[in-house]
Write a structure and sequence with these properties.
This protein has a seven-stranded antiparallel sheet with strand order 1-7-6-5-4-3-2, covered by helices on one side. Helix content is about 50%, strand content about 20%. α2 crosses α3. The chain is an alpha+beta fold.
């Protein structure tokens, strides 16, 4: 197996661990909310509603689950938080064992049922913790970080030659005309700049960036520098299309979303899912290059509900005066 294939396999294993860890995180969130919002119901279902101690224990376990949820959903170190769930499961099983020994009848049957469910959850937690630890160890050996930044890719074809498309992108002042969340780009040097962008909940993020690799007419690669609010890096390539006239624009972008998985979930809820953002930006880039503006339809003149971006006039046929003017040229 080649080194590249080995790294890709390690990354795939880590991605699977990340997905499973997030699943456990959402489960912890649900359990924690239930135990804090309706502790009496949880106690009754569990069969410990006759115990005064359970009135204190159930909310505490709920609070512990919320801590697990925060760790599993926001931290890249899924292995650590998976092991904390295993420890919590062991504590729960020990408490349930004591409770079963002191119950009989219907309450005992409920406790046995709950214990069986906890045993099943423990098996999943233990498997996830072991796999996360193994993936972390393999990743460290092979140079793959646990978690890592999100990587996005997108492609569009623009009916303009590569030198012209490249020149428009290379003039950084043009980027906010089609990148919805960019507020301002200020050039600070021949290859350096300062960026400002909007974020969910009306906040702004800023960072400094530098061009680290450039081939005029073909490629631009950049990365953030210093303590960026959103560490990021990317490459855009301008490839001649098979028709000999157009340009294929290939973008690869990687960055860390503020708030981790929770930040991504919130952004998606407000119509700002990262993959969709990039696709929309390239669609607008194509429109700007080919028509000179971002075109909106009568059905959706204000764009996404998350942000009324680019309020250009709705798309409509050319007027008679515009057609006459075009015929004169």
């Amino acid at each position: 197996m080649t080194q590249l294939a080995t790294r890709e396999a390690a990354k795939a294993r880590q991605d699977e661990v990340q997905r499973r860890g997030r699943g456990l995180g959402w489960m912890s969130l649900g359990l924690g909310v239930a135990q804090l919002a309706a502790p009496d119901t949880v106690r009754r279902i569990s069969g410990v509603d006759d115990s005064a101690t359970s009135k204190t224990v159930v909310p505490l376990v709920g609070a512990r689950e919320l801590v697990h949820a925060a760790g599993l959903l926001t931290s890249r170190r899924k292995s650590i938080w998976a092991w904390t769930r295993v420890v919590g499961d062991a504590m729960d099983l020990a408490s349930l064992g004591v409770a079963i020994a002191h119950r009989s009848g219907r309450r005992r049957r409920r406790l046995v049922g709950v214990t069986g469910a906890i045993v099943g959850i423990t098996v999943v937690d233990l498997l996830t913790a072991v796999q996360a630890t193994r993936a972390k160890r393999i990743g460290a050996v092979r140079g793959v970080r646990e978690g890592g930044p999100m990587e996005l890719t997108a492609t569009t074809t623009i009916r303009k030659p590569p030198p012209k498309v490249y020149a428009f992108w290379r003039d950084l002042d043009n980027l906010p005309t089609f990148m919805a969340h960019l507020e301002e780009i200020r050039t600070t040097g021949d290859r350096t700049s300062h960026w400002s962008a909007s974020a969910p909940f009306g906040t702004n993020v800023e960072w400094d960036a530098e061009i680290v690799d450039e081939t005029p007419g073909e490629k631009i690669a950049w990365r953030s520098t210093g303590k960026a609010d959103v560490p990021n890096a990317g490459t855009v390539r301008f490839v001649p299309a098979p028709d000999g006239v157009s340009t294929e624009v290939h973008v690869v972008l990687s960055y860390d979303i503020p708030g981790g998985a929770i930040g991504k979930a919130v952004a998606r809820y407000f119509g700002e899912e990262p993959h969709q953002q990039l696709d929309d930006d390239l669609r607008r880039f194509k429109q700007v290059m080919e028509t000179g503006q971002v075109v909106r339809s009568d059905g959706a003149p204000w764009g996404k509900r998350a942000r009324k971006e680019f309020p250009q006039r709705p798309a409509q046929p050319l007027s008679d005066a515009e057609l006459a003017k075009g015929a004169d040229k």
